[in-house]
Amino acid sequence: MLLDGKKVAENIYKEIAEEIDWLTKKPCLGAVLLWEKDSPSMRYIEQKKRNAEKVGMEFILHHLAEDTSEKELLSKIQELNTDTHLSGYIVQLPLPQHIDNNTIINAIDSSKDVDGFHPINQGKLVTWDDSGFTPCTPAGIMHLLSSQNIDLTGKSVVIIGKSNIVGKPLISLCLNQWATVTSCNSKTPDISIYTKQADIVISATGMPHIITADIIGDKTVVIDVWFSIIDGKILWDSDVEAIDQQWNLVTPVPGWVWPMTVAMLLWNTLKAHKTYLWTL
Ligand code: GUN
Q1: Nearest CA to ligand 1 atom 4
Q2: Would you say residue 252 has pLDDT above 60?
Q3: How would you label 247-271 residue by residue, b for 16+ Cβ within 10 Å and e otherwise?
Q4: Is 42 near ligand 1, meaning CB less than 6 Å away?
Q5: What is the mean pLDDT of residues 177-198?
Q6: Does ligand 1 lie within 6 Å of residue 224's CB atom?
């Protein structure tokens, strides 16, 4: 069966919209984008904007030139950190190569870091402190699993990919739910040793078809987070078509995890907004 992230995300949008409806001061989400107009990042930002507005949030895009210097970007970040109209904001990744990701992420005020990338928010996640923001894709995956009543207690979860955005936060989130977690990466010699005994496999590598039908069990849940584009063709981490959809619950098509990422971003923005309102 295919796991439809889009449908689950729609329910979350509805919940957020209902809460916002009650608020006199509406949340405002900001985004900083450094890529040219028709890049994938621009399309991702447009989806975030569309959905933010759909639930009743304001969305402000700061579209900067690709050759913006690190210093100029840091100065924009200082401006956004002190902008009380903004509930939270994101800096869309990837950044151009002349800019250091960590320098930028560290400069974001952690109370406005609705992406959950700042070390304070990553630390809160590891220490089970729920006052922080959880990175949106991992949070979306956890929601997707719970929407299917999949209880992780005692389950074997294999996470493939070790990024700060997806792989590492997922380790903490799954541990928090009492899963037995195995972390693999592109240098793991033979992932099948781990995936064959897994209840759940979550792959976020961008390596096409590293999850094939023969390296998972009959009832393994496969969450596929990433894809690559080769010769104009989209190839997911998992060979979705070959995996038996009668037995395995599998993303990505048609909704995959992306709608859940956007839903969690809006969730975090509403959380930032409510936290700010309580301080007034
Ligand atoms: N690039 C890919 N995923 C993300 C995300 O969740 N947030 C940001 N800011 N950039 C991304």
Answers
A1: 93
A2: no
A3: ebbbbbeebbbbbbbbbbbbbbbbb
A4: no
A5: 96
A6: no
